[in-house]
Amino acid sequence: MSEYLNNDKIANSLTEAILESGENYIFENLQKFKASIATLLKQGNTLKRQGKLEEAAAVYRRCIELNPTSAWSYNNLGEVLGKLGQLDEAVVAYRKAINLSPNSALFYNNLGESLFKQGNWDKAIKCYQNAINSKPDFYILYKNLGDAFTKKDG
């Protein structure tokens, strides 16, 4: 009986050690995973600055595959799609970014710009107003809002 209890203690100790090392393994790999996504985002940003928009879009899409909760990946994809003239797709990407980060003035502004380019003045105005509510000291938002009102009334 004591041999059984001793074996049980050893088994419990081993289980605890395995779980602890497993948690460390998971944590370490999670950190590496996050670093790899950050590296991919930087690569996409570099490609975007170089004007390699299709390649940048592919990188951002890969980031989204790896981490579908990355608001910045959706936002950056929206920027590239907008530059490629794919405004409908850009709007979808920006909306996903906003769903993940609903207080981002930048994401609302970017969505507003795409809607503005599509001639959706009322929706653009709403986006700029949401952006201003999130960040009232972001002066360009007021200009963009004024431009949208001018186009709507013009």
- The quaternary structure here is single chain
Helical percent range? over 70%
**Strand tally:** 0
CATH topology-level name of the largest domain = Serine Threonine Protein Phosphatase 5, Tetratricopeptide repeat
In the CATH scheme, the class of the largest domain would be Mainly Alpha
Mean of all residue-level pLDDT scores: 86
Looking at the structure, what is the overall shape? globular
* SS content category: mainly alpha
Largest sheet data? none
Bin the strand percentage.
under 5%
Given as residue ranges, the uncertain stretches (5+ residues, pLDDT < 50) are: 1-7
Distance between the termini: 91 Å
Number of helices: 7
| Radius of gyration (Å) | 24 Å
Secondary-structure element pattern, one letter each: HHHHHHH
Spell out the CATH superfamily of the largest domain. Tetratricopeptide repeat domain
What does it look like?
The protein is mainly alpha-helical. It folds into two domains: 1-94, Tetratricopeptide repeat domain (Serine Threonine Protein Phosphatase 5, Tetratricopeptide repeat, Alpha Horseshoe); 103-154, Alpha Horseshoe (Serine Threonine Protein Phosphatase 5, Tetratricopeptide repeat). Helix content is 84%, strand content 0%. The protein has seven helices and no strands. α1 (2-49) packs antiparallel against α2 and α3 runs parallel beside α5. It is globular and about 65 Å long. The relative contact order is 0.07. Residues 1-7 have low confidence and may be disordered.
